[in-house]
């Protein structure tokens, strides 16, 4: 079975960039990479997604390697409110998402 | 926040009893999804719907059934609950475009004793 792998936890200093990695054992050509985050027990919130080009929005940047098996979510200036669980996922037709187990990001002052 | 509600928000039940969870949306989105969240597994897709009366299985569908008789409602049924179905269940909605984002509901915490 295809697996999505993320480190279980990471720490980041407040104001610094947080770089969260994700690896897919396999990913189809039509599958996008999505990132969501979950704060406390709330429902996950969308952050960003991309196919093969790097993407940036007001929340984050997404770097995708050429073979598309690895991606990095970048929070450019992490704040305490960015402390959350970050999920990498891949999705294709019908947008059926396959999630990794998530990375707990702790932003420390 | 997207207009998604889930009911009940918390439920405790006993093994062998039937349980139905409801997801209700006010966004008129075509796609609706049920996920379960367990430690170490992230979120896993149970079933999804791509229109009224149109549903399909996800990666962990055994022991679950779904129904969608109206655009706004997507029901998840555990015919005979087991302790392994103790989990947090999230509903999500999405528009028709393949690359669209999903919006998640607040979740239902289900405990099967």
Structural account:
The complex is a heterodimer of chains A (109) and B (113). Chain A is mainly β and 109 residues long. Chain A has no helices and 11 strands. Chain A has strands spanning 4-5, 9-13, 18-24, 32-38, 45-50, 55-56, 61-64, 70-75, 84-91, 97-99, 103-108. In chain A, strands 2, 4, 5, 9, 10 and 11 form a 6-stranded mixed sheet that branches. In chain A, strands 1-3-8-7-6 form a 5-stranded antiparallel sheet, with no helix packed on it. Chain A starts with a strand and ends with a strand. The mean pLDDT of chain A is 93. Chain B has strands spanning 4-7, 10-13, 19-25, 31-38, 42-51, 54-57, 64-70, 73-78, 87-94, 103-104, 108-112. In chain B, the strands form 2 sheets. In chain B, strands 2, 4, 5, 6, 9, 10 and 11 form a 7-stranded mixed sheet that branches. Chain B has a 4-stranded antiparallel sheet with strand order 1-3-8-7, with no helix packed on it. In chain B, strand 9 and strand 10 form a beta hairpin. The model of chain B has no long low-confidence stretch (mean pLDDT 93). The A-B interface holds A 4, 30, 32, 34, 36, 41-46, 49, 51, 87, 89, 92-102 and B 4, 31, 33, 40-45, 48, 50, 56, 58-59, 88, 90, 92, 94, 98-107.
Strand content range of chain B = over 45%
How widely separated are the two ends of chain B? 33 Å
Number of strands of chain A: 11
Beta strands of chain B, count: 11
Helix percent band of chain A: under 10%
Query: Taking Cα atoms only, what radius of gyration of chain A do you get, to the nearest Å?
Result: 13 Å
Largest sheet of chain A, in brief, is: 6 strands, mixed
What would you call the structural class of chain A?
mainly beta
H/E series of chain A, N to C?
EEEEEEEEEEE
Largest interface: A-B, 26 and 28 residues
Our count of helices of chain B gives 0
State the secondary-structure class of chain B. Answer: mainly beta
CA gyration radius of chain B, whole angstroms: 13 Å
**What amount of the residues of chain A lies in strands?**
over 45%
C-alpha geometry of chain A: globular
Shape of chain B: globular
């Amino acid at each position: 079975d295809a697996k999505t792998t993320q480190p279980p936890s990471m720490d980041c200093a407040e104001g610094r960039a947080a770089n969260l990695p994700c690896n897919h054992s396999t990913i189809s050509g039509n599958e996008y990479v999505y990132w969501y985050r979950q704060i406390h027990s709330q429902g996950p919130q969308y952050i960003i997604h991309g196919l093969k080009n790097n993407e940036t929005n007001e929340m984050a940047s997404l770097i995708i390697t050429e073979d598309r098996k690895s991606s990095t979510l970048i929070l450019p200036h992490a704040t305490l409110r960015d402390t959350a669980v970050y999920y990498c996922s891949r999705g294709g037709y019908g947008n059926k998402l396959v999630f990794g187990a998530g990375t707990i990001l702790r932003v420390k002052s | 926040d997207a207009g998604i509600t889930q009911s009940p928000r918390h439920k405790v039940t006993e093994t062998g009893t039937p349980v139905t969870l409801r997801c209700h949306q006010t966004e008129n989105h075509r796609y609706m999804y049920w996920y379960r969240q367990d430690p170490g597994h992230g979120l896993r897709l149970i079933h999804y719907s791509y229109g009224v009366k149109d549903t399909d299985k996800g990666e962990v569908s055994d022991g679950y059934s779904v129904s969608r008789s109206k655009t706004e409602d997507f029901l998840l049924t555990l015919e005979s609950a087991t302790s392994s179905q103790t989990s947090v269940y999230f509903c999500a909605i999405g528009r028709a475009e393949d690359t669209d984002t999903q919006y998640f509901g607040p979740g239902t915490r289900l405990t099967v004793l």
